[in-house]
Design brief:
Length: 156
């Protein structure tokens, strides 16, 4: 239980400290990765990003909602092999619609105020990733995981 709490705290700190992540989707042409600016819900159960509806990532999500978002704190230096950490959030993506859209947009813009025009563009969609599990990799080889479902089960 202590290790799980440490993992949860490390995931929480790392994700909240970063602006960008690499979104992985799958489509007809195979795997696809793209850089996205994201925000996270207060309870760490959902991640949000904005994308034009004409992108390959949006088409892939529409066809197959299974996604992964990789977030890391590396700085592209040799010390990363001993100090950097990465979190992969695995889950399902869904498009946010009114009435929830406004609160999600406000939450997103609190982290990314410079993306206001993009976030309000009628050609863009807000997407939420409902996280099923987080996988934490520290010091290049220590891997731990926790499932959101397990956390939900322990609170009921």
């Amino acid at each position: 239980m202590i290790r799980e709490e440490l993992t949860r705290n490390a995931v929480h700190q790392l994700i909240r400290g970063q602006q960008l992540g690499v979104l992985s989707t799958a489509g007809e042409k195979g795997p696809y990765a793209s850089l996205v600016a994201f925000s996270i819900s207060d309870d760490d159960r959902r991640l949000f990003f904005v994308t034009p509806r004409t992108t390959r990532k949006f088409a892939n999500i529409t066809a197959d909602a299974r996604v992964a978002l990789l977030v890391n704190n590396s700085i592209n230096r040799p010390e990363d092999f001993h100090q950097a950490a990465a979190v992969t959030a695995v889950g399902r993506a869904l498009t946010i619609v009114p009435p929830e859209l406004e609160s999600v947009r406000d939450h997103y813009l609190a982290k990314h105020p410079y993306l206001k025009e993009f976030a309000y563009s009628p050609s863009c969609a807000f997407v939420a990733i409902r996280v099923e599990r987080y996988i934490l990799v520290e010091r290049f080889q220590n891997v731990t995981e926790y499932r959101i479902e397990d956390e939900l089960d322990s609170t009921h």
